[in-house]
């Protein structure tokens, strides 16, 4: 029997990359992409992939979008708090549409004891999925390596120092593209129902290690300094960072110090057949961004 695979939120970075890997493995006829922005996926439509409009904020848009799908990739959304309702709408629509198996992109830190402010929404989504009657696979994606490389390092290089509250704690940062390759492997093969995979990079690095690598790649000196939680919170407040983002950043550091990002797994190698890529590969890909970071006034 043909298994039709639905990738929802398909125009996002993880969604698109997963779609490309899936299409390396199965015919376009067997793939449905759902998105709020059908035009953004015109290239996939031109290749014969079914592209449908779906917005989790408009539950009435979901039945037609999910129709005929057997297995679905549910990518977690961004907005803290609000996304639980959005995920609920998607899960209820998946059940109604007859989807049998949902693969959910969870997070490596998801644990009831973890203080990270992004964790409660995932825990609630796990409860919704566990109570849905669907077969579920949890992909506990590691800390995206893209976050330090493209967001944290450029301003740190410009200032000459990276300041946070992680105090040499380590994280097994993973390329988002490796998360996509794992998701595609799970979507296109059998036997993953009821399983949980921790998807991590190949090494555990501290932010001191990361700044040292960035200095090497960019040729620009960048130091590392750890401050306590209250000091970091105050610095972020003074910089005008909104409450929710500040809470997310500070609680990330607390969670990293508690070891929630540290474990290294071989999931990427095991499920895709090739090793997870190290952080420095991503820095090389973004060398121009890192070397070209403007100097602070
Ligand atoms: N592990 C980590 O370190 C880490 C870091 C950051 C984020 N994340 C999580 O990983 C997820 C995927 O990351 P990404 O980089 O691919 O994010 P992204 O590029 O921002 O994609 C997120 C997608 O969410 C979809 N979306 C937003 N509102 C929606 C709605 N109302 N209904 C349906 N879809 C909606 C959009 O898809 P369409 O435009 O196609 O509708 C958007 O493209 C994030 O959403 C976040 O939960 C993890």
Automatic annotation (TrEMBL):
<dbReference type="InterPro" id="IPR036291">
    <property type="entry name" value="NAD(P)-bd_dom_sf"/>
</dbReference>
<dbReference type="InterPro" id="IPR052718">
    <property type="entry name" value="NmrA-type_oxidoreductase"/>
</dbReference>
<dbReference type="Pfam" id="PF13460">
    <property type="entry name" value="NAD_binding_10"/>
</dbReference>
<protein>
    <submittedName>
        <fullName>SDR family oxidoreductase</fullName>
    </submittedName>
</protein>
<dbReference type="InterPro" id="IPR016040">
    <property type="entry name" value="NAD(P)-bd_dom"/>
</dbReference>
<feature type="domain" description="NAD(P)-binding">
    <location>
        <begin position="10"/>
        <end position="189"/>
    </location>
</feature>
């Amino acid at each position: 029997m043909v298994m039709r695979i639905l990738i929802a939120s398909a125009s996002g970075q993880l969604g698109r990359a997963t779609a490309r890997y899936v299409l390396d493995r199965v015919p376009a006829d067997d793939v449905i992409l759902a998105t709020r922005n059908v035009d953004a996926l015109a290239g996939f439509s031109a290749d014969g992939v079914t592209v449908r409009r779906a917005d989790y904020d408009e539950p009435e848009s979901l039945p037609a979008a999910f129709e005929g799908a057997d297995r679905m990739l549910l990518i977690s959304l961004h907005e803290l708090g609000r996304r639980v309702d959005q995920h609920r709408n998607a899960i209820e629509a998946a059940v109604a549409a007859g989807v049998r198996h949902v693969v959910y992109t969870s997070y490596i830190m998801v644990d009831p004891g973890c203080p990270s402010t992004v964790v409660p929404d995932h825990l609630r989504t796990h409860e919704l999925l566990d109570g849905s009657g669907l077969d579920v696979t949890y992909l506990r994606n590691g800390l995206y390596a893209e976050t330090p490389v493209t967001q944290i390092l450029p301003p740190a290089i410009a200032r000459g120092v990276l300041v946070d509250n992680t105090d040499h704690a380590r994280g097994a940062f993973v390329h988002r593209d490796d998360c996509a390759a794992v998701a595609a492997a799970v979507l296109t093969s059998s036997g993953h129902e009821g399983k949980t995979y921790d998807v991590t990079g190949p090494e555990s690095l501290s932010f001191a290690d990361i700044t040292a690598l960035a200095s090497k790649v960019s040729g620009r000196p960048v130091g590392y300094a750890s401050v306590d939680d209250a000091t970091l919170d105050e610095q972020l407040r003074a910089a005008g960072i909104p409450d929710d983002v500040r809470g997310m950043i500070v609680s990330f550091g607390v969670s990293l110090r508690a070891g929630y990002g540290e474990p290294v797994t071989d999931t990427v190698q095991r499920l895709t057949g090739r090793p997870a890529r190290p952080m420095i590969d991503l820095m090389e890909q973004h060398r121009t961004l890192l070397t070209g970071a403007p100097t602070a006034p």
